[in-house]
Every structure is written in structure tokens, then in C-alpha cells.
Amino acid sequence: MVQSKKQKYTFLAFCLIPTFIMFSIFTLYPLFSGLYFSFFEWSGATQEKTFIGFDNYIKLFNDSIIPRTIYHDYFLVATKVVGIMVLALFFAVALTQLKIKEAPFYRIVFFFPNIMSVVVIGILWAFIYNPSMGLVNSGLEAIGLESWTRAWLGNEDWALASLVLPSVWAGIGLFMLMLMGGIANVSKSYYEAAEIDGANEWQQFWKVTLPLVWPQIKISILYIVITTLNGSFIIVQVMTGGGPNNSTHVMGSYLYQQAFQQYDFGYGATIGVMILIISLITVLILQFLMRRERVEY
Amino acid sequence: MKKLLKGPVSLLWMGLLTIGLAAGCSSDDDSSGDNGGGDGSGEGGVSGELELQYFVGGYGDSWWKEVIEDFEEEYPDVSVVEHAGPNINEEMRSRWVSGDPPDVVYIDGAGSSETQMVEDGQLMNLSDLVEDIEVEGEPLLDSFIVEPATYDDEIYSLPLVFDTWGTWYNEALFEDEGYEVPADFDGFMDTMGEVQEGEDISPFVTTGQHPYYFLRGVLYPAFGASGGDELLNDVITGAEGAWTSDPVVEVMEKVQEMQEAGYIDDGFGALNHTQSQMDFLMGDNAFIPVGFWLPNEMANDIPEDFEFGFVPSPMNDSGEPYSIVPDLRPLAIAEEAENPEAAEAFVEFVFKKEFARSFSEHTGAIMNLNGVDLSENEEVPDYLIEANDMINDEEQVQINNKPHPMSSDLEEPIGNSLVSLMLGNITAEEFTEEAEQAAAEYRESNE
Question: Which CATH superfamily does the domain covering B164-325+399-445 fall into?
């Protein structure tokens, strides 16, 4: 049956209009109202707002804590991308290529953190890092490294680094599954051909596996970057609250503090606008850096 | 029917659907405006619905339940709607923002700020109402232990709960091991030294995630002891030069001394208040600055051989009395209360000596009414009776009053520097400079 043009457009409109309305209400409206509030002095707890133009933005540029929060965010982004991608790729290759009998078991174990709430993970790891009864310090003591023990989350120099481990641990599973899916789609014949040509396993990984799962790797990296810039707030809030002395504040947790603890909602909205801009720029740069020809053999 | 779904007609259908959706999202604003509340014009003047918002924290909610029950008995035409819980301040925020607040609010706990609410014009001026309230024949204003906070000489809230911060210790342990309860800062340092040696622990702990516990629990009394109400007023309002003044520097040097002697648990930076209190109860530390609510808040986790002892934070020089700085939790009426008559009736009803007694029984703390005898009451915990006696003994304890709570815009940066000082990363002098800088920024933002 041939569809008339009108029918086609009707169908398209039927699909698009409700989606667009939902998108407008739940995405565009909050986005623009955030932008709007950033021009006001508003405590967030009253109906009265005062328009102050760009004052919040001037404050943003003069705020000495802002550069630190940006640095902390990118520290987490960099360490998480490296940590998660290396480990996820390693496990994915190991579980698909090495023909381990217990592969399904490991798959479940590694994916487990992903079904736990980040809040639970944060509390769990706060106990692991606990200076007096935590696993980390008692483990170090058990192997005779008492001088290495410290109050991990309570130390201005170590707190941020201590947040990396739980973030990586919580992230591996999902990306491991994504990469396993990618690897499973690579035809066995490529490996056979490579083997006949004399390539060892290492060369097979670099020349066959990696180029062919590149689309998955790219998506994974983008996803880690975006979720870290937007979502590292949770683990910071649960584990350290941004402290000690701002040494773990990320942009999101600082926004929360300003908007909901210091009653400066307008300034919080300004920080939100900054997060949006920084995330957009980061993603654009990443897209540019990671563009590669699609490989097909 | 088939035809209806086809052709140009279907576009019309979709248009209608769209309009319906959009309208559905915006049509609920005027229907909900005047339900509940009532107009308070029933017999006796007080009827209808009374919405009450109260924070439930360390003091629990059993006292509130009792008061509300008695109130409803006295005013059978009024039904009280309770909005209560540990996160109630956050949960009710949208109601306040949209101009539909509850009638009566008890201001306490995270996410609430009396100063902010007054600045935002959300609270009703109670200056006239308070003149008419009497407690057993005496004017209410003469019956307060601590008078209401004033903003430009007007009263917007009535202090209900008399809270005070102090330093807690394990009385059972101190008695068994013969540690002395400190009476001044030198004694404090001596006892901490003995505890450190005898128990092999860091004697002092507090929460690093909420540095205001140390600020309010230790530094305020220290400032009160060395510079009285005037210094306290200057540091809280961020007056120029207050934070770098000699008495403040001396106090901060005491803190540095505690840090350098290794008396402050070096893990405190990561602890939230519950964790620090757990460590204290487990005997990992011997002293902790918290308010009166500590025993009630931790009621389920108290080890058997543990006995609470309370002393005003001993930051005073020898020969001088301790200082305590009361922290008041007020009751207020919303400016836009829908049932102000019932709200006023409720506020008047609460301030009774009978309720003050039952407050101490339920919560182990004190309601802000004087002349309430607790000493014979068996339901009241021992530490409270001791503390109550101590507070009323002018030779032992001086009471210093702060003008109003410190704004979080000043408290936040000072708290951050404080953590740094207590971790040993900066000196007392560097701290005072950072605090002075924060005060300067705070003054500037308030101009």
C-alpha cells in the first residue's frame, strides 16, 4: 500500500508533537528558567526576587573556589576515564577472549555495583576509608605499612584522590558489558586470519579488537565525561560534603551548597549555567579529538 | 469512525489533544488556593484548619504530639495538620516559595534559617501579640530565660527551646579512671593529656563535615569568655577587625595548641556529626562539643557502661567562669498564614510551664521559660538537672548572648578555614586573616 504524503506527515506529527511538548516542559523550561534565575538575587525560599543583571556572573569570576571546583571535576573526569576504560577493556577482553569457565559469574560480580545506588556506594566506601575501623587502614596495618595509614577522607591532600576508587569501582560494570557486546560482534574470522598472518594476542588486540570496538569506546568515554561533570555531585555530597576546606568540592556540590545551604539560589543557577557551558565545550572538544574513520575489514 | 482518524480531521484531533495536554499542566493554580485554612470566624473566633510545620531531630516528636492533642482538646473546632520530619524544611520549601506557607512554624534543623526568613519577610510581626501573652499570670516577655531575637527592634519569632552547646564526656569513665572534669582551658589541656596517655586515644573529636559544631560549641563560648557579648556580636556580624583582634587570636592559638598536642582526632575532617558522635560513644574519643540534644539523638546507640556528662566548653582562662552561649529554637507565625487566629491561639497555648516540664521529660532539654523546677522530677535525666543547676549558678557560669545566628554566608568560609586550622594545615594567625577576609566579603555583599 502506498502511503499518501499527508498520511506520512500525520504519522510524523503524531510521533513528534507529544515528545516535543514533554521535552519543552521537562528540559527546555527548566533550562531557560535556570538561565533566567541567574540574573536575580533570590534566596530560593520566597517569592521576592531582585533583578541584578550580570552581578552573579561577576561574582562567579571573582570566586576563588570556582577554579578549584573545576579542577576537581576534571581531575575526576581524567582519572575515571583512564581507570574505568583500562579496567573495563581489560575485563571485557579477558572475559570474551580467554575462554574462562566462570565468565558469567564474573560478569555478574563486576556489574553488581551498577545496580546499587550511588548513595549506598558512598556510605559503604566512607566506612571502608574510616580511619579507625576502615578496611583500608586495617589492611595497611596488617601488611606492616602503618606509616601509610591516614584519615583518607579527612585529609586535605588525599580526600579527592580517595573519591576516585569508589567512582571507578562503581563504573566498570556497565562499560565492561558495552565493550563485551562490541567484542562479541567482531567476527572470529578476523582473529583466525590475524593468527595465520602470525599476529600474537597483543597485536590482535591492538590491530583487530581496538579499532573494531572504537565506536563503543568513544561512546563510553563521552558517557563517563558527561555523567562525571553532571553527577559526581552525589558521591562528593555523600562522602565528604565538599570538605575538608573545599578540597573535594566539585561544581555540582558547590552549586548545591550555594543554592540550598547559603540561600543564594540565583548564584547557584549561575553556577548551573557555567556547568552547562563547560560540559558542552568539553563534549565538543572530545568529539573532535576522538573522530576517527570507521574501520571495516 | 475510520474516517475520523484520517485526513485533515486527524490533524484537528491532534491539535485538541495538544491543547488538552498543555491546559492540564497549568490549570491547577487557582483551585487550590483557598481550600483548608478556614477563615477563623467560627464561634469563639478560633476554628478551621491549623497547619503546623515542625522539624523532628534529636528531640523527637513525642512532645509535639502531646501538645497538639491538648490543643485540639482545648479548641475542638480546630484541626491541626502536622507537617513534620527530619527533612521537613526542604519538603515545605515549595509551599513557602509559592506564598502558601503553613500557619505556624518551629524553626530548627538543616535547611531552616530564622534570619533568612525574617529578611525575606516571611514571618509575621509578633511584637504586639507577645505583649498580650501571659504565663501563669506573668507577662511572657518576663518569663523567657533568653529574650526573643529582635530585628530593628521588632519581634518576629518567640524562642521556644533553650538549647546550649557544651562539651560532653563519659562520666562513668572519668569516675573510674579518676580523670578530672576541666574547669578552664588549662585543666582541659591537662585532662586531654592524661586521657591521651591513659586510654591511648585522641581525646577530642568533632564533625569536620559540619565545622559549625566546633564554631558554635567551642569558639562562641571561648569568645564569650574572653570578650563578652560585645566580642560575640562583632565576630558574628563580621565587624571590621573583629576576627584579627587580640582576644580572637588568643582563642585561636588555644585551638592550635590543641591541634599541635595531637589532642584533636586527625580523622575528624571526614566525619559527619553522627559518625563523630558514634566514635565518642564507642570510646574512641573522650570529649565532643554538641548541644543538649546529644543523648536523645543517640538514644539507640548508647553503650551500657556509658554515662553522659556535660560541661560548658572549658575555653575560659583559669579563675574565670565558664561561658555558655544559648542557641534558641523559635516558634513563629507565617506572614501569609491562612488561619492567623488559630496560629496565635496555638503560640499562646504552647508557652506554659506544664509543657516546659514535659518538654524536659520528653527531650532531656530545656524550654525557654524560667522558674521551672526540674530538680524533683524523676523523669528528667541527671545531666540535665546538673547542667540546669550549673547554668543558674552565676559564679560558675556566665551566659553570653549572641545577637542572632551567624549568616551561613559567613559561617561557611570560616568553617572551611577552621577545618584547615584543626588539621594543622594553617596557623592560628593565618586562620584569623582568612576569617577577616571572609568577614570583609560578607560585609561587602550585604551593602
Answer: Periplasmic binding protein-like II (3.40.190.10)
